[in-house]
Amino acid sequence: MMKLTRPFHGIILILFVMLAINSTSATTKYNVLSFGAKPNGKTDSTKAFLMAWEAACSSADSTMIYVPKGRYLLGSMAFKGGCKSPQITIRIDGTLVAPQDYRVLGKSTDWLNFEGVNGVSILGGALDAKGPSLWACKASHSNCPSGATVFSFTNSKNIRIRRLLSLNSQMFHIVINGCENVHVQGVRIIAAGDSPNTDGIHVQLSKNVNIIKCSIKTGDDCISIGPGTKNLWVEQVTCGPGHGISIGSLAKDLKEEGVQNVTIRKTTFMETQNGLRIKSWARPSTGFVQGVRFLDSLMRNVQNPIVIDQNYCPHNLNCPNQVSGIKIKDIIYEGIRGTSSTQVAIKFDCSPKNPCTGIRLQNVNLSYLNKPAQSSCSNVRGKALNLVRPESCL
């Protein structure tokens, strides 16, 4: 009889361990239809979704909330943490739709709010927030509600969002606030280019956030990066229409947490207002921006491909005759190329009190109407390496 060698014994042992792990980590599934949800797009299924969440949250097993194909009418919902389940997956094969009357959601801060959760994954699905009617209200200068964010994650950890479509948000599409270890991949965001305050993904007071392979078409910043953001990685994001990728507005508060260790690479901007922007109000602050890497970006007819604006003061309210206290240093722009729709393709307008330092341009090639573009520098110190077009003003 053939004797098993030690490697074969090891393989058999591993198989037994894997089977044991699989047997103890079975996922308990909860179908929203079992809780009374109706996939007809007309019956309010809010209560059914909350009941499914409560069941999944209170289970000691890994759980899945399953949303089959169909359209589900939902009002504002809050999914609270403190769950027994170590991992909750929400798999959406259908479409979640907001009420037709924009005031129903408009008076809420969020449509779907996750707070204090750990190990939640959102997989697939579409969300139609019915934003255009609220945008029209705001355009007519009527007495309109502010509007709701589609997805909000607050004080949460180990979050995964994949293959989601967010359509026509009233306000922001996705907000990541006070979170840790968040992975967003394959998300599509769509709203009209003139839709107000419809930022695609907003990150603040969070660390270890990855945003990968996303397409964002909206009326405000594609990605907005707020105070307290640390270790943010953005890669293979396509932006346009929209206001570009923006760090700021900063200096909203006197004592404000800084932004650090941000990498944005392999991004494409198509006819956006800005490309890569750092923006702060012209007023005192203890905040800072440092350790930012803008790498390998393509600009297609972008108004302001590279811009630092530390004199942001819309309507000259609460900031005239003041200067920004935000300290900006160690910022690298490398491999930035394409076309600007304005003559000034690089603009560094920094604070006279706190000049930008450690700014580096390397292998930058931006043109304007097939002609040389220009650069503009104010209160900035740095250097240019290798090819830099337009000619550096550093």
UniProtKB/TrEMBL annotation:
This is Pectate lyase superfamily protein domain-containing protein. It comes from the Eukaryota. The keyword Secreted applies. PANTHER family: PTHR31375. It comes from Gossypium darwinii. It is found in: Secreted, Cell wall. The keyword DNA-binding does not apply. GO terms for molecular function: polygalacturonase activity. Residues 1-26 form the signal peptide. Belongs to the glycosyl hydrolase 28 family. Its main location: secreted. Keywords: Cell wall, Cell wall biogenesis/degradation, Glycosidase, Hydrolase, Secreted, Signal. InterPro entries: Glyco_hydro_28, PbH1, Pectin_lyas_fold, Pectin_lyase_fold/virulence. GO terms for biological process: carbohydrate metabolic process; cell wall organization.
